Amino acid sequence: MSAQLAAGTYRCRDVAQSVAAALSAGVTWVDMAPNYAFDTAESSLRPLLGACPHVRVSTKVGFVPDSDRRAARAAGVLPYDHNRGHCLTRPYIAWQVARSRARLGRVPDLVFVHNPEHGRPDRTGLLRMLTEAFEELEGVADAGEIGGYGVATWVGLSNGMFTVPELTALAKSVGGPHHHFRAVQFPVSLVHLAVVADALEGRGSLAEAHETGLDVFASAPLGGGELPGAMTEELVRSIDAAASPAQAALLVALSAPGVSQVLLSASTPAHWADARGAAAREPLSPDRLRRVIDVLGT
């Protein structure tokens, strides 16, 4: 099954406008976090999502929104000496997930543990923290308050701080064979080609996620918006000579083995129309992906 486009909301200037354009383009998944859009992403999207019950929603827990810090401390879920801006204790997770659910006006389909590598804990401490987070999220999922959970990371997988098999084993140890661990989210793009190269050889995070039945949400497919302007004619031709620079860059993420959703933070109908053009193309073959990797190296 080919990867699908999904609406990402990181760094969107106007989240409601961007997601409205995405929904008009036929997107059926929206990803956000409580701290996106100056802490307003969830609440600003409630009217749109309320009118689109078929659209699935993922949010995150980990980074403490500035606007929530005082309330979290008053609720006793965030220690007063906690100044790192990131928290994955069980009390805070339960509190923040309930707050997200109220702001969204619905049960999130997924809640991602957001950048657990933040603060660079040692591996032992990191796995202990993830165990506590998974325990809480399993309980919340059992209660029907979320559909499932995952891990969204920037460098945790690429730096070997944890692996997909370790995360899956942890979920099984906490939740048993019917655990609610469903997905991982990490960068897949022309900037992060090593993960694609590994997948073509049947190894690495993409291959491991596919083997364990996890959905993969590819983040930053356009390199934070920098890739379209950096695409050379040679690189575009090596991908698809008939594609626009943005389409060519998106095609790599859309074609990467094991990717389920490609998170795009596009702001206008024109951007989404261009993205739909990429999604409508035939995925790049493994041989074509290898040629792209040969052009750029990894």
UniProtKB/TrEMBL annotation:
Gene3D superfamilies (UniProt xref): NADP-dependent oxidoreductase domain
Occurrences of domain NADP-dependent oxidoreductase (ranges): 13-291
Pfam families (UniProt xref): Aldo_ket_red (PF00248)
InterPro entries, per the entry: AKR2_Oxidoreductase (IPR053135), NAD(P)_OxRdtase_dom_sf (IPR036812), NADP_OxRdtase_dom (IPR023210)
Protein known as: Oxidoreductase
